[in-house]
Specification:
Layout lengths: L6 E7 L3 H8 L11 E5 L3 E3 L4 H5 L9 E3 L1 H4 L4 E4 L2 E5 L4 E4 L2 E10 L4 E2 L11 E2 L3 H19 L12 E5 L3 H20 L9 E5 L11 H14 L1 E4 L4 E4 L3 E4 L2 E4 L2 E4 L3 E2 L2 H4 L11 E2 L5 E2 L2 E6 L4 E2 L1 E2 L3 E2 L4 H19 L16 E5 L5 E5 L2 E4 L1 H14 L3 H17 L18
Parallel strand pairs: 1-2, 1-8, 2-5, 8-21, 10-17, 11-12, 11-17, 12-13, 19-22
Antiparallel strand pairs: 3-4, 6-7, 7-8, 9-18, 14-15, 15-16, 20-21, 23-24, 25-26, 26-27
Helix pairs in contact: 1-8, 5-6
């Protein structure tokens, strides 16, 4: 659709993990034409958990893109538009294509990157979207060619230094991948780089991935050290410029600077009625709804849910993919006339977590078992292949992983005409 319908029984905003899993599990009564409408500003949805592999050339960018229209076929209508405002009193969602009235609204629009302080912002690249990954890939390729090409003696200190700010899962995975990338390039480049590659991971607290079990921190510290990554804990960025960073009272040159610290929520989520945390997540009740507007569900990164057994749930894909199907079942109960007392609360099952530490290693906790190394990496890949949205993209991603050793890294070794778009090469 290019023009908004006047109304829909259920409107779902966002085709990410929560929104897509809800649409896949819609009850039959909501799959009739005009009953459910999915709204998203994109026609294709990027698989964000794997963009760090795009940034180092291990995955083709198109392997991470899933078209939204096939997801909706036979399930719901699709409107390509941006959700701009909401009037919960009149039950109206305002979009760039026009207003839509609803009976139930599911906000599953996801989050966005937390930006650096204003004084530092112009000196860092964000790392949150597929476009961010492609820009970083271009930066890394340019840095390597600059320090190994005919003019390698004319560069500046820090050309091959990458500073990653943020010791969450995103920063850890990215730092490990870049370290392995430089090892790969050194083996396949005739010219020796003018300076040794250097990766510095900066974390403001005293632990990496602080919301996970300490085992993740311990294994990550050991593995990152083995890969040559310098991890600086309790290290806040104080200043930055075109040539480097000041952190912990020390200035060091770094021509590639990446900000991967925290998440932020868009204005539409921040405007929802209720209690919000500093990142903008809004508190939801036991049925994942706004306390004062039970017809409005808030799923995934945008919702702040306090689980009775696990405490405050983190904004992760593993939470979102459980909330989507649960919300679909809850909608079915409500359509059948169930009261609030008759509807069970959302019950999160902690399946564990896995963090990649380069192509050959990872750290995982699954159903109470903790493990690391190639076995954890195999689990990591199997999980993400499962959650890719269709068979074609599972095949493409699996083929990229399998062919990496023979075809090399995409986007490295030759100048790139532009990294802001998704190339087909």
């Amino acid at each position: 659709m290019t023009q908004a319908p006047r109304k829909a029984h259920v409107v779902v905003v966002g085709a990410g993990f929560a929104g897509a899993s809800l649409v896949r599990n819609l009850p039959s009564t909501l799959r009739r034409r005009g009953q459910t409408l999915l709204v998203d500003r994109q026609e294709e949805y990027p698989f964000i958990p794997l963009i760090h592999e795009v940034a180092v050339g291990r995955l083709h960018p198109e392997s991470t893109l899933s078209p939204i229209a096939p997801l909706c076929r036979g399930r719901c209508d699709f409107l390509k538009a941006e959700a701009q405002d909401l009037d919960p009193v009149s039950k109206t969602l305002y979009t760039s294509a026009g207003p839509i009235s609803y009976e139930y609204l599911v906000m599953a629009a996801g989050s966005r990157a937390s930006r650096p302080p204003e004084a530092l912002e112009e000196h860092f690249r964000l790392f949150w979207t597929l476009e961010d990954a492609l820009r970083l890939r271009s930066d890394l390729n340019t840095a390597w060619r600059t320090t190994t090409g005919p003019s390698r003696g004319t560069g500046q200190p820090g050309d091959l230094t990458v500073a990653v700010v943020g010791g969450g899962a995103t920063g850890v995975e990215l730092a490990a991948e870049i370290a392995v990338l430089f090892q790969y390039l050194k083996k396949r480049t005739a010219g020796k780089p003018r300076e040794a590659p250097r990766i510095v991971l900066l974390e403001a607290s005293d632990r990496l991935m602080g919301w996970l079990d300490p085992y993740f921190h311990e294994v990550a510290m050991e593995e990152l050290s083995r890969l040559g990554v310098e991890v600086r804990l309790n290290s806040t960025v104080e200043d930055a410029g075109e040539s480097g960073i000041r952190a912990g009272g020390e200035w060091f040159p770094a021509c590639t600077r990446v900000w991967a610290a925290g998440i932020d929520l868009p204005p539409l989520i921040r405007s929802l009625p209720g209690d919000h945390d500093p990142s903008g997540r809004v508190r939801v009740d036991a049925h994942l709804s706004l306390p004062d507007h039970p017809e409005v569900y808030v799923l995934g990164d945008a919702g702040l849910y306090e689980d009775p057994r696990h405490g405050q749930l983190p904004p992760t894909a593993s939470v979102a993919v459980q909330q989507g199907p649960w919300a679909a079942r809850d909608l079915d109960r409500r359509l059948r006339g169930a009261s609030s007392e008759d509807r069970p609360p959302f019950d999160f099952f902690d399946r564990g977590y896995v963090v990649s530490l380069g192509p050959e290693s990872a750290v995982a906790e699954a159903v109470g078992a903790k493990f690391r190394g190639p076995a954890a990496q195999a689990l990591y890949r199997s999980i993400f292949l499962y959650y890719l949205k269709d068979r074609r993209h599972r095949f493409l991603t699996g083929a990229d992983w399998a062919m990496e050793r023979t075809i090399g890294r995409l986007g490295f070794g030759t100048p790139e005409p532009g990294a802001a778009s998704v190339e087909k090469s």
